[in-house]
């Protein structure tokens, strides 16, 4: 339904208001929330506001954080996508997956597909990503897709490491065996 990106294992589509229950379940898991401001921040009402923001962002820009599901059974397992970064308005790549899916390369697979989408379909020249410096798994994903450390600064009220990649560097170094563009 309204899929905008797919990979070998994943399908991404814009959020709808019907996804609220799933999203609250995902974001209020303590380990998922750990580097997303913790459970103090990821309350059901905060998650509802984020969902509305993601829906509005897609309507306005044609890109957003998307519901990310397993293609083989349709089960939602995470959130991934592109959206404007706090303060700078640069476009940021983001991802989070249910804990039972960690360590299978899904975030890397999603990240590559979104970079490809951003550079080829959305005409972006540069994409950034931010994470708490202690969030080693997230930073490892950034490094694996070719993003380079830029600086540390406050975004969303937290001191975060910012990584970035330019279109020319992405196109020059990466082949996407498991990502397919949709027409
Ligand atoms: C960050 C996250 C999306 C990674 O998802 P994932 O599907 O497990 O990621 P991948 O399997 O593609 O890659 C993870 C990499 O980090 C490495 N890694 C995992 N935990 C690590 C740790 N504690 N320290 C160092 N490296 C770690 C893995 O070994 C892997 O690298 P490798 O392929 O070189 O072995 C997942 O942990 C998550 O959803 N976390 C909660 C939400 C979150 O923090 N999102 C990011 C916000 S910035």
Describe this structure in words.
The strands form 2 sheets. The protein has a 6-stranded antiparallel beta sheet with strand order 5-4-3-2-1-9. The protein has a 3-stranded antiparallel beta sheet with strand order 6-8-7. The protein is globular. The protein has 183 residues and is α+β, with helices and mostly antiparallel strands. The chain has helices at 20-27, 30-33, 38-41, 44-61, 106-120, 136-144, 167-173; strands spanning 5-7, 10-14, 65-70, 76-84, 91-97, 126-131, 148-155, 158-166, 179-180. A hairpin with a 5-residue loop joins strand 3 and strand 4. The site of coenzyme A has 20 residues, from strand 5, helix 5 and helix 6.
